[in-house]
């Protein structure tokens, strides 16, 4: 029975991430958040509506066993909520009345970056030849040929088979047997597999922020255009393309509500934020035209191979990040991404696994709707709030307790 059909059926999204809790950058702390999908999208990811569940102690990330132990209390409560929990609910405001009601809840999705989805989903890493992809059985070596990006030829994972593999892995007695089975199937048991209806390949949608902005746009502009020398000055008398690119950004009028401007070439000593890459996808064609042009045209010998790739990324990003769209528009946008990747490979431009993961956006969008339903922007902001709390240099477990206490003190003040 679907929880959406129940009068008091709740749907939750889980987020997990790790961040540096100290300025020195040598103390990694993990956090798990829970949001209520029943809330409207513009309310769902507000600070006051995000529930901090677990703060995982540092200074290093936990191993698989420790992670399962830390998630065990959460899984136990989710199982109870799945069966139904009787709570008091409010009816009316003047006067307010309360009555007991059985409420059900289910964990619908795990929204996180790719590494966190792999870690909590019990999957192989990105270096695995047989099982690098969470969603299909493509081999890592296939990323060097067009077939690694043509969706029609993908052999998707069977969710039930993956779940059976995870339970069989748990039944094995020795570490050697478990490792051999994991290397072959790419599946191992985690705490999330105890939840009814939980399948890693179906409940872990790709994250658009890391795919499009921190991954795709960064790869295309920096590693495909700049580093190979496509924006290098050809003749001593020619104008430097990089100078033209940066000058165009300086002279471009950008609304004041954009707090982070697009990154300039060769002038960034700090880490470029996703918001900067997001804005760059909107305006990148103008500074690139100013950098490549001779007079008012771009000569044929200056046109880079794969010149439709940026157009494909821009159009698909606009389609995917829209609030309203149709299945036909999703298919069209994903086809643009596929064409872009095939064009890159045919021009001997290597692509990382992130571009293959983009080919699986269609399935998640048909299930969860707009990518705003599964993006991690709100959770990244929550990490910023958590990491900025004053912990007075505490460590050895005291730091994590201070962060948890500080988060809920703010929440209690907001409730008052």
Description:
By secondary structure, the protein is α+β, with helices and mostly antiparallel strands. The protein has three domains: 111 residues, no CATH class; 92 residues, no CATH class; 164 residues, no CATH class. The chain has 16 helices and five strands. It has a five-stranded mixed β-sheet, sandwiched between helices. β1 and β2 form a beta hairpin. The longest helix is centred in the first third of the chain and has 20 residues. The radius of gyration is 24 Å and the shape is globular. The mean pLDDT is 84. This is Transposase family Tnp2 protein. It comes from Rhizoctonia solani 123E.
Keywords:
single chain; 416 residues; alpha+beta; 3 domains; five-stranded mixed β-sheet; 5 strands; 44% helix; globular; Transposase family Tnp2 protein
